[in-house]
Amino acid sequence: MTTSTYFMIGFFTFFVIHLIGESLIIKNKDNKNGLLIRYISKPLLMPLLACFYIFDNSSLDWWVILGIAGGFIGDVCLMIPDPKKTKRFFKFGLISFLLGHFFYIIALILMTDFSNYQWWSILFSIPYILIGVIVYPRLIKHTGKMKIPVTVYLIVIILMGVSTPLLWGNNEPIGVILLMMGALVFIISDTINAFNKFAKEIPYERLYTMTTYLLGQFLLVLGFLYAI
Asked: What is the pTM of this model?
């Protein structure tokens, strides 16, 4: 068993452990065991994923590593308690995730050979654009003072999704498919989280958000590995 496989197993182990913790918190938001599991497991997830990428890769892309780092910092910021509802750490987390998406976009563009770009692949961008068109008007009316940051974030994450089909024609198809799936699942995760945060509380939101978020991150990283 390779070193990268151990880190992948560690990632999915803490993935499940984290979801168990979130389930306990859903039943009782003051559940000490659930909170302890959250604060131990969540900061470990992105570092484990980064190690999986590093040890399974002979040619590291530092933009991908920076993208994972953006997720790590965002994860930490969003789990910091905010009893006064200042949304200070939420804003820091939003910026970190935004930068993470931006770094992924750079990695995707640098991997693209535009001289061999397959123009028909633009059709694969339609689902991401449709999500943006459908979600934006329904979400933005609830965001108040956060309207501009949320708009910018939504544009960037949709651009991240749109950037994945660029790789068709000059990269391994399985890697491109994984990247497209990862971006789509990531967008779904952020959409669920945003509606829960700004519009209406969604039952079991943390389970839906974290499952799709972690799965999306893993698929993206796996896609970067296979697309080379």
From this structure: 0.94
Residue range of the domain that includes 115: 59-227
Of 91, 103, 6, 105, nearest to 51 by C-alpha is: 6
Q: What is the mean pLDDT of the chain?
A: 92
Instruction: State residue 100 phi and psi, 5-degree precision.
Output: -60, -45
Tell me if 51 is assigned to some domain.
no
Q: Give the pair of three-digit tokens for residue 66.
A: 């920076």
As for how many domains the chain has, the answer is: 1
Is 83 part of any domain?
yes
In a domain, 40, yes or no: no
- Report if residue 123 sits inside a domain: yes
Mean pLDDT of 145-173: 91
Q: Which residues of 145-182 are buried (b: 16+ CB within 10 A; e: fewer)?
A: ebeeebeebbebbbbbbbbbbbbbbbbeeebbbbbbbb
Distance CA 44, CA 35 (A): 15
Q: Tell me how far apart the terminal alpha carbons of the chain are, to the nearest angstrom.
A: 22
Per residue in 47-90, pLDDT (tens digit) is 999 999 999 887 889 999 999 999 999 999 988 877 777 778 88
Q: Is the pLDDT of residue 166 over 80?
A: yes
